[in-house]
From TrEMBL:
UniProt keyword Secreted present: yes
GO terms under cellular component: extracellular space
Location in or out of the cell: Secreted
Signal peptide residues on this chain, from the entry's feature table: 1-23
Protein name: C-C motif chemokine
Keyword hit for Nucleotide-binding: no
Pfam families in the cross-refs: IL8
InterPro entries in UniProt: Chemokine_b/g/d, Chemokine_CC_CS, Chemokine_IL8-like_dom, Interleukin_8-like_sf
Key words, A-Z: Chemotaxis, Cytokine, Disulfide bond, Inflammatory response, Secreted, Signal
Principal localisation: secreted
Domain of life assignment: Eukaryota
Record family assignment: Belongs to the intercrine beta (chemokine CC) family.
Lineage of origin: Eukaryota, Metazoa, Chordata, Craniata, Vertebrata
Ranges for domain Chemokine interleukin-8-like: 29-88
């Protein structure tokens, strides 16, 4: 009986430790773009954007969020993408620390 209680405690400790390791930020999946749109997205349809610059991703990209909730990957080197970013930067409220 004592052996099974000790084994159970050891198993619980091991499970807790494994959960802590898996929850470490380094193990969180990274959002990457594997293809980019070839179509220009009209500015009125855009809601926000984020830059994908993670070294784990093969493509550097901008992910636009549309007003319909879709995420669309775009090439940051394209002029329309740069213009859309400037537009969103002007209309989105800036966060103050």
């Amino acid at each position: 009986m004592q052996i099974s209680t000790g084994l159970l405690c050891l198993l619980l400790v091991a499970t807790a430790f494994t959960s802590q390791v898996l929850a470490h930020p380094g193990s969180i999946p990274v959002s990457c773009c594997f293809a980019m749109t070839s179509k220009k997205i009209p500015k009125p349809l855009l809601k926000s954007y984020k830059k994908i610059t993670n070294s784990r991703c093969t493509l550097r990209a901008i992910v636009f969020k549309t007003k319909l909730g879709k995420d669309i990957c775009a090439d940051p080197k394209q002029k329309w993408v740069q213009d859309a970013i400037k537009h969103l930067d002007q209309i989105l409220p800036t966060l103050k620390p």
